[in-house]
């Protein structure tokens, strides 16, 4: 299998091509390179050769992404009934689908249990005894996996160090008994799962390994014959230009070693790793304003409704000017702000960029993961369009919303 180890940095994208797309489709605009998504999937497959790779759809559940990954042979991990429906529509088969039921609303369980009737190969992961009971109440006795609460987590911030959050999963000590109980009740108990957190870096290897070891000890202690151990996702990508890429090989090797004595298949659920560096967000400067000692404010047409991560997590996204004629402009500290009347509507703070001009196009990196997916309509701002690049062509895969889209569900 070919292996492309290179991280795709924001500077690797061609400025003229991105400017052309901004001119043709307008801004704000998400650009998503589906061929890069496919290569990222291959990189995970190469690191985990015998594992089943289930793409965590929550990172970007656009139909174009899902159907390309289905074509490439990936599986999918879904966080809601809606994601399950979208995954099936995009071409995934029942056997490709893992549905992780985290505090699931009744309607989600109703929908997925109904879908599973015709697709007995679909797997549901429950994170509480109560969820197992609710599945039984609906007559479900199909493939069941249990989510383990490992007690430790890691990630790009405390709020996404999910493994440490007791609301997700069953305490490891209680899992073997619950597996046996579910098996006795007639469920087809197939696996155990845990998720360390999102945005793991090379420094987080030990934390991830601790979670894998917890899973291994649960699998050792159960008398139920498990088919797989699902070690979750969370593999990070470098957001800062100077940050090194995540080295997947040592993580994969340590994971394999920790599970080697067990006769189980390995499942991984990467989201961000497959799509983050395949996407950029294009935006246009519409207001230029001196920011005193802080340099210059560049007001742009994308904001926290377009890309929520900086406002929500204080996340860093690299920003680059796409203008061809910036050599004669002074570099200055630029703070990129959105159009929403919230003081957290800041996409980037104090970046060294050419003195901005009205009309300048800017590109924001690593926008393929948790970008369009977390976009919203706050302040009646329609969500942006998404353009896909595939096999040398570009096409709109999600049209720009309009105010009519926002009001369409309203009744007088
Ligand atoms: C259960 C589960 N699996 C996988 C993922 C994917 O995380 P990431 O995008 O960091 O790989 C998440 C994160 O939301 C998750 O909760
Ligand atoms: N639910 C994920 C976190 C998603 C973080 C993502 N939304 C981001 O933008 O970083 C988890 O449990 O690890």
Bound molecules: pyridoxal-5'-phosphate, 2,6-diaminopimelic acid
Sheet-strand content, in percent, reads 15-25%
Helix-strand sequence: HEHEHEHEHEHEEHEHEHEHEEHEEEEEEH
Structural class: alpha/beta
Q: Give the end-to-end Cα distance, rounded to a whole number of Å.
A: 58 Å
The CATH architecture category of the largest domain equals: Alpha-Beta Barrel
Arithmetic mean pLDDT:
95
Counted up, domains total 2
CATH domain fold name of the largest domain: TIM Barrel
Q: What are the low-pLDDT stretches, counting only 5+ consecutive residues below 50?
A: none
Coarse shape: globular
Reading off the top of the CATH hierarchy, the class of the largest domain is best stated as Alpha Beta
Beta strands, count = 18
**Rg calculated over all Cα atoms:** 22 Å
The biggest beta sheet, please?
9 strands, mixed
Proportion of residues in helical segments: 25-40%
SS element count, helices: 12
CATH superfamily of the largest domain: Alanine racemase
